[in-house]
């Protein structure tokens, strides 16, 4: 059980009050994925948020109302799908910071998940949006695992410089809001 | 909003009272997937159940309690993952019937989802367990789409004979409870 929805709210508030040019990462990715689907480019979709249901009220058979439930720590990533026959899997995150992405924003199970995807021949990565800088990066799962593993012995974040050096800039566009598959095609095929 | 959890409960009760040899399909698949993961054969996992959250109570920051939510009609399938570099996606269903599988157990969006998976080079299918017969079949997505499309003009189910003719028997085992990837390997590679 985690405080996922509160964090999310805080981020959105900051985004909307500090920056008019700010992009909502989830919206941008969802719109891009819809563009990919509509144009038969790829089929990538968002997974449901994991929730543990404790109590369900059955007033009548057709309307089951969940009256007690909690957010679960996610064990997989937000997005997955298929592109040119390859398995695609990624997590998308925003950060307030201008200098680094805190590793506490990613859960250990999600890192393990990305590692498993790569082990079995899939393409895994994270997309991180520094919204105060208006910059977005794609970082390969192998680098995510490497940086995550130093968490207990040293730095607890991935620096902006590391994103610049090891990641790939994802440019914001108009029709394809965030064309991350252009990078996937260039880097993984 | 659907009556998903009630159906599930009813099914489980029937399963447990009418048949001691009866297999719980979800358990069998989850155990099999764990076997695949533990032995580095494949990485296939269950997606969260889609829930729409209406009301969240924040008593304190660390415990967000969802106090009103509803089950959503699923737009994708239950399981997906990766096997020998290929995208795998399927829905698993049980039926009480001894003669056919009613198509109302599958939603239109799930059929469209399977169609999209195939279009982009993935492997999609359904696994259907006739528990009164103790038989389980794997049926390719193309056949699911074909049978689903006749729903409005004719038969509203897939018959047992059709599963026998166009599907593949999945045998129940001990260590690998339901080794459906043996069929996937034989039929799709």
| Class per helix and strand makeup of chain A | alpha+beta
Q: Which overall shape of chain A is indicated by the principal axes computed on the Cα atoms?
A: globular
Order of helices and strands of chain A: HHEEEEEEHEEHEHEH
Q: Count of helices of chain A?
A: 6
Structural domain tally of chain A = 1
Name of the CATH first level of chain A: Alpha Beta
Question: What's the mean pLDDT score of chain A?
Answer: 88
Spatial strand sequence of the major β-sheet of chain A = 1-4-5-7-8-10
- The fold-level CATH name of chain A is Trna Endonuclease, Chain: A, domain 1
What's the main sheet of chain A like? 6 strands, mixed
Oligomer: homodimer
Word description of this protein:
Two copies of one chain form a homodimer. The first copy, chain A, has 189 residues and is an alpha+beta fold. Chain A is 35% helix and 32% strand. A six-stranded mixed beta sheet of chain A has the order 1-4-5-7-8-10, sandwiched between helices. The first copy, chain A, has a two-stranded antiparallel sheet with strand order 2-3. The N terminus of chain A is likely disordered. The interface between A and B is large, with 45 and 46 residues. β3 of chain A pairs antiparallel with β3 of chain B.
